[in-house]
Model the fold of this input.
Amino acid sequence: MALPSVGGGYQFNDGNLNELKVTVSAAPVTATSSATLTVAQLTNGLILGSPGSSAAAYTLPLAADLDTALTNAKVGTTFDFSVINVDGSSSGVITMTTNTGWAIGTSGSQGLMTVAATAGTVRAFRARKLGDASWALYAIS
Done:
């Protein structure tokens, strides 16, 4: 059955406003002390960060590696992921840091790249493809 294309959009359910939209997702991934995140961790959507009693830097994977994994991504493609700081230490701040091919802004120009050192603190991020082996990261919450 072909989906109608009226108005340039598409409908992915039957339009019942009382119908719950459910999805399936993999179990959250973890990261501990400072590390370079893998593409699999980033695209999982939920990272449980456990930096312990000292600050941690979570370095983004190479942008070229992300392109290799997301072969159909075109300029403007986005995906979101969240990092939850599961530690309660006052020193365990998590900072997202850049890697080759990434633009993350400075001084908050694309949002603050830190996850506070309070257990349960969550920061959501959006990755956006800028070009070949070129991505930007924005803090969206």
Notes: The two ends are 39 Å apart (CA to CA). The first strand starts at residue 29 and ends at 31. The chain has a mean pLDDT of 86.
